[in-house]
Amino acid sequence: MGNYRYGVILDAGSSGSRVYVYRWLTSEAAKAKDDGKKLERLPRLKTKKNWHKKVKPGISTFGETPQRVGEDHLKELVDFALDIVPEDEVEQTPIFLLATAGMRLLPEYQQKDVLANVCAYFQQNTHFELPDCGLHVQVIPGETEGLYGWIAANYLLGGFDAPEEHDHGKGHNTYGFLDMGGASAQIAFAPNATEAKTHAEDLKLLRLRKINGDALEYKVFVTTWLGFGANEARRRYVKSLLDAYPEETELPDPCLPAGLTLDTDGHDITPHEDSKLSYLMGTGDFTACLKATYPLLEKEKPCEDAPCLLNGVHTPAIDFDVNHFVGVSEYWHTTHEVFAMAHKDKAYDLETYQKQVTELCSQRWTDLEKDIQAEKWGRKVDKKTIEEVCFKASWLISMLHDGIGVPRQGIETKKPNNNDSKTDDLLDGAKDRGFLDPFQAVDKIDGTEVSWTLGKMVLYASSQMPATDEALAVGFGSNQPGKPLPSDFQHAGGKYTPSTTPVHDDNDADDWHDHILTANYSRRVPGIIIFLLILLLATYLLCGRDRRHALHHKILFLLGHKPSSPRSRRRKNMLPSIFGSQIPSSASSYAALEAAEPEDFELSDVDPNNSPTLYNNAFYSDTDPSQPTSTNGRTSGWATPATRALSPDLMKTSPSRSSAPAGSSGLGILPFSRTESRERLASLRTGSRAGSPKRSPLIAPLKEI
């Protein structure tokens, strides 16, 4: 184990799954690097912009085919994580898959089947740390998702580590958290002291741990509104239109730009007179749209446990003097993606925002299409985004101000310097004002995405810090201070394991081992080596015969070998060049040579422009170095004999003649057993080996190279 620990978490949402990778210094490394005040904080988690990846569709689509979830959905995400986590750290790296709204809508038996297959895939195909599938792979309730989001927001804003710098009054130093996805919405905040005492049983007790082992405790209220996400709210809205116009085919929709027609599922449609299917016709009336979305808050439902905000769900009173909220996901996309694209930290102001939305939604759809094609709002804003933005903006305003009760910034709140006109202060970046407005939409803080997955990993990383004697377990549960732990207490997912590797001094920035020790890099090494070898071989073959020979001599000289003379090389290579890769040694092979006429053999012509080259005992043509020339052909600088057809008498063999072995075809002559009479063979011979003192007529005179 090195200086760092890593964590992998998969956010299995309704529209897709996204993997995040985080890392942090071990307790030993952090203590060796820092001391004093810096240890009185939570471990510092780091991630990078390319350390997360999303795949579609959502994991809930595998409800009826759970066995496919591994190869068809998880594999790409797991492989991505393995490319980031160093190979020698994988077994100490926890992996989590936490499913949210989409999976909550599945029947319980389908949820169990999908989660079981997820766990089996992790265990059988990875070596990530997975001690408890029930804790690491689960469908989390909306309250847990909201709590993790609350941790992430306060962690990034600094409310945990430097409370004195985030004094909101009345001893309050944490921020509230709002999240809106496609299916649900969450709220999490720490009520003021009076409300916390009054509603103590409704709060969650959260425990974290600093690097020095000291505990942090917070009492947080969290709730969720299932069906109040942007997509589910739109579905309920369309149903209300169908109920309001049961006999009509064309349904007027004030939440769509004027002239836009969609079917009831939100797809583009061209109406036909003879069609009996209902469709939506945009009227572009944003004021009417606000009135139409208000009933979706269901504030009329009875509140059995007062106070309630909406849908009859109990919520302690919110003190907006000290409870300052940050909103993520749809809260940020709907306020910033179109209407503040150039000002990512632009403060939310209802008066300004509502004017922008009203102006856009009153335009004809044909004009908006031209603006989309001209990329008026940037490349990422597509047709679907503009089709949906009017309803989403209306729903966001209704949720914030009519539902949750956030003061209408710019309308109900005091304007700076009591000036009735818009001032520059309202348009300043929210970050510069310390996020002290009642509401501010955010996406990233100091370059890190505000995601509930970060909150979960902060909780886990803090559990890896060694505890002091008084510190209790890290996690959350019912608000029951002290021991024993409440029955519903959920641990962070692991226990502290001290590092056995000596701490080394390194740079906290982009460490070299992040690149060298990753699985992705190790898998590339063989390919890199093969590529370099091919490059060297190609360079060698293209450098020319003379240069290759010169290089060969230099290498022999450096190795201490004296190159042999051309004549000795010829003597050494003469027979292999003539007879192939093996020198014939059997009596039958010599008999064939003795029986042949001199004119049965001839020398091939030598083309000086296409003379093959000897390389590693194989012959290569200079015109095509990649194709080896048969050893029955020509060698470098001189020609080998080519066979002509043998005489019919010679080709007549006895029935006992055997076929030639693969390695004995140097002259293309089939070896045979000497079963014929010596007299017949003698009549064909032109001379004997012993009786001829001259050079054999089979070999042409050699010339010096």
TrEMBL record:
Binding site for ATP: 182-186
CDD domains, per database record: ASKHA_NBD_YND1-like
Cross-referenced InterPro entries: GDA1_CD39_NTPase
Active site: 145 (proton acceptor)
UniProt record, GO biological process: CTP metabolic process; UDP catabolic process
A molecular function GO annotation: ribonucleoside triphosphate phosphatase activity
CC per GO annotation: Golgi apparatus; membrane
Family that this chain belongs to: Belongs to the GDA1/CD39 NTPase family.
Name by which UniProt lists this protein: Nucleoside diphosphatase
UniProt lineage: Eukaryota, Fungi, Dikarya, Ascomycota, Pezizomycotina
